[in-house]
Write a structure and sequence with these properties.
The protein is α/β, with parallel strands linked by helices and about 300 residues long. About 35% of the residues lie in helices and about 15% in strands. Helix 6 runs parallel beside helix 8 and helix 7 runs antiparallel to helix 8.
């Protein structure tokens, strides 16, 4: 009897109460702004001369020109991988204009969609404000708009090129979103109509750089700049007038991260894939990714 009591007392310090739950990590920042530039090839960072706002964020934060697209290096499949934290074989979106998964998703959330960064954030923190706006309507099929407070499309953007920027500025200032994605199509349009790595391509990139500066100012006007992490990235690059292939010109694109708790002046050396974007955002917010995600956060960019 004494031996049994001694053994029980010995084990007591190692017993974990059933009701104990893992402590939720503290968010690295209160807000994340994702700026997506469709068709932005990584090769252009070394060649573009008139992008002062993008270069400022590169210098103040961390960057790589070699983040890789999933295959095929097309829009729909890569926007899906960017926000869904996984690869086409698992989320099922496999073509440039996927509306629904061509392969059944291995996991579905409460909306019948593959889990996105928007949906796992909404589930963990129902009170947050989120948004996603775009110039290409294909975005709406891969982000789970039911998990987003504000989704919209900039109409007739070819004749009103600043419209998406104006929509984004209003939403940032009025709503101070926790997670907001702004996705431009203009550079990809120039790549298809005139060509990648052309004077017109760099002119369009310079025009988008002005919009980047305006969004940074909107964060300051809203009073949330110091609590925000900004990510600028792309779905794919391109060669000549196309994309979708296996060349590095098509697959490699920039990833820039800057803001609260992010190291300065670091060139990201670790390999990075499209689906690591969502995983990095989840890490910022202290979220536990679903098992169906394969993305990993880029830990080297965080100061602590």
């Amino acid at each position: 009897m004494k031996h049994a009591l001694f053994f029980l007392l010995l084990c007591l310090p190692f017993v974990t109460p059933l009701e104990a739950k893992p402590k939720q990590p503290k968010p690295k920042a209160q807000h994340v702004l994702v700026i997506g530039i469709d068709g932005w090839g990584g090769y252009s960072l070394a060649k573009a001369h008139d992008i002062p706002n993008i270069r400022m964020l590169m210098q103040q934060g961390c960057y790589t020109a070699k983040k890789r697209s999933v295959l095929p290096s097309d829009s729909g499949v890569n926007w899906a991988s960017m926000f869904n934290g996984s690869c086409p074989e698992l989320h099922g979106y496999t073509t440039w204009n996927s509306h629904t998964p061509e392969i059944p998703s291995v996991e579905l959330n409460e909306h019948g969609k593959f889990p996105t960064i928007f949906s796992i954030l909404r589930k963990a923190r129902p009170d947050v404000v989120t948004g996603c706006i775009a110039e290409w309507d294909g975005i709406k099929h891969v982000v789970d708009t039911m998990a987003i407070d504000y989704y919209d499309l900039a109409p007739d953007w070819e004749h009103h090129t600043s419209l998406l920027c104006e929509m984004a500025e209003r939403f940032i200032i009025d709503r101070k979103p926790t997670l907001f994605a702004v996705c431009w199509d203009q550079l990809d349009h120039t790549g298809h109509s005139i060509g990648h790595d052309t004077p017109e391509y760099y002119q369009t990139l310079a025009e988008l750089d002005v919009f980047v500066g305006r969004l940074v100012q909107a964060l300051k006007t809203a009073g949330i700049y110091d609590q925000t992490i900004i990510i600028i990235t792309a779905d794919h690059g391109g060669v000549n007038k196309g994309h979708g292939g296996k060349s590095l010109l098509e697959m490699e694109h920039p990833f820039i991260i800057c803001g609260r708790g992010i190291r300065s002046g670091l060139v990201i050396e670790e390999p990075m894939m499209q689906f690591d974007t969502a995983a990095t955002i989840a890490y910022i917010f202290g979220l536990t990714p679903p098992r169906s995600w394969v993305g990993r956060p880029v830990l080297s960019v965080f100061s602590k």
